[in-house]
Amino acid sequence: MDKIIIITSNIAPYRLRWCEELSEHYEVVIYYTKDKEKDRDRRFLKHGSRKCKVVKLNNKNDRPEPLCLDVLPVIRRHRKDLILFDGYGPITNILGLVYCKLIGKKVIVNVDGYALGEKRSVLKDRLKNWIISRLCPIIFCSSEVTKQHLISCGAREENIHVHNFSSVDKARILDKPLSEKEKLHLREKLKIESRKPVVLGVGQFIPRKRFEDLIAAVRTCKTDCDLYILGGKPDDRYLQLTQGTDRVHFIDFVPPEEVDDYYRASDLFVLSSQTDVWGLVLNEAVANGLPVISSDHCIAGLSMIEGNGIVYETGNIEKLTEAIDTCLLPENKKRMSRRSLDIARAYNIESMVERQLPVIQQYFQNKL
After folding, report:
1. Which of 25, 197, 255, 366 has its Cβ near the most Cβ atoms within 10 Å?
2. Which CATH number do you get for residue 60?
3. How many domains does the chain have?
4. 277 touches 115 (CB < 8 A)
5. What's the CA dihedral at 117, 155, 7, 165 to 10 degrees?
6. Could you tell me the residue range of the domain that residue 206 belongs to?
């Protein structure tokens, strides 16, 4: 069986699920560099697989941005196999890409998106353009939006293959939106006391998530609703923002396999980030039949919101407030929920791999 070598930073559940789906067709070996991520709860990451061989590269002190020199003998050892770099940014991947270029080894690079909304740096932009244009001969990318960005960085259009990035299996996608009765039943199970429309935010309490915008918007919106933010423990700054209102509630970290119940118990999902390379929580919300609101700095929002929600100007609390009120109108909520499920059926892990397989097959047939 032909072999795929995947070189990545860490093993998030969705990343592992993608690798395991590929392993239904090829032998897959995952080499990764770290067991923890600055912006993620350590319980989120995986360290093994029943379907793929998993090997950690040499990073004894688990440095956040490691340079793992043992990636070079890995590449030499697997010179006849397909090497797939998950991302072009990590320094270990850059080293591996340069080495593959020097030895004439053609590889595939997987690109989830790009950090729209980050402060620009001329030096970083030049380095990024050089890597994309010179070191990435074949690219899998998340969406047409990402594809156009890669072309602007010097990638050749014919070498870019869009696969509609997702963290969701087909089995997780609802057949139809849940009824109000079903949502209330789930809230009882989850000990969510609210009987009002529920607005959901998901993520850690870090500045780029801009949860302060979401809190401010819910506090002032006309609709009598409750906000639940899931994913960590808020610090004093966020607690102070809730003073004088009973609309805002916090839920600590929930294991990935349990998070769907919280989406399904809610009425609306909001992604308020200053920047997200993609924004997989939006995939999850759409798969659970929620209307969705996203800032215009999230690639998932720009790619997946079409009749199922609203994209607003990042940081514009007035526009976010209006969007929440609009999406919670009963007729809009019902229509947008159905539309979200239609979109989810084009964004799932199985479909991702289906789109990648012809390219991989061509690679092994020496047609690329």
Report:
1. 197
2. 3.40.50.2000
3. 2
4. yes
5. 60
6. 170-344
